[in-house]
Design goal:
transmembrane helix, 205 residues, Isoprenylcysteine carboxylmethyltransferase family protein, transmembrane, Metal_cation-efflux_comp, 7 helices, Phopholipid_MeTrfase, Four Helix Bundle (Hemerythrin (Met), subunit A), 0% strand
Length: 205
Amino acid sequence: MDGTSSLHTVSQDVVWVCVYVFLAAWIIGAVYFGTRSNGGFRGWMRNARGTLPARVGLIAGVAVVQLATRGDHGGTWRHLQYWTPALAIVGMVLAVASTALLLWARWVLGTMWASVPLLQERHELRTGGPYGLVRHPIYTGLLGLVLGATLAGGFGAWVVALVVAVPWLLHRVTVEDGLMAGQFGDRYAEYRRQVPALVPRPRRR
């Protein structure tokens, strides 16, 4: 195996480690913070049943993407392939950084997190940590992870995942902004004015 082939394999492995770390943290965090929420274990179980389709859908989507991006598959995605070592390195760095952002944001959000947009009982507005950089750092992390995977994997099937992820996440941003605005009114309007949705902007001095 030459250096280029080795880097290609490593870049793919790094991406999938990031994906699995995110999924593990997502599941463990749901249980850990869910049982400590205001509704307790029973409340978490009720919410878990209600959001089960979304959870299953995400896991199924990840499985489909993995099957599509692993192996040759008869050259199905060859017309979308463009892999270079430089892009692979950028993609790996972006994937790792995005995963770190996802974990940070998930921890800070704590019991206020849900797998679908909704208001928790006695919902609190989080504005510290990563939520001081962007309003939706989990979505920023997800977009960064998919984009990093696209670059590291040489585009291919990841292009389809990116095309699906962008409008889906933008829709979620719109829905969640509406929920938060309805719940927190002027406070959220001011937060929204000061903090961008997904892409951090330079601080004014």
